[in-house]
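ARCHIVE CARD
CATEGORY: sequence design from structure
SOURCE FIELD: tokenized fold
FIELD CONTENT:
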């Protein structure tokens, strides 16, 4: 955890209670990111991003029809 100690000394570590829901964790992380463009952080996530974060299920693939 040496690298964590380095970043903590530079005030670049955010401790987050991961027992919260993903949306609440994301809101906490956004609030703790200093110097970040808040307009960018308030941009809605893409569907793919929400799927990767587990905030929505992956869409089911449709089977190809061969005629």
């Amino acid at each position: 955890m040496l690298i964590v100690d380095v970043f903590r000394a530079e005030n670049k570590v955010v401790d987050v209670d991961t027992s919260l829901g993903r949306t609440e964790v994301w809101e906490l992380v956004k609030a703790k990111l200093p110097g970040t463009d808040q307009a960018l952080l308030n941009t809605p996530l893409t569907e793919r991003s929400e799927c990767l974060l587990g905030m929505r299920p992956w869409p089911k693939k449709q089977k190809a029809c061969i005629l």
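CARD ANNOTATION: The chain has four helices and no strands. The chain has a mean pLDDT of 80.
SHELF: design records, drawer C
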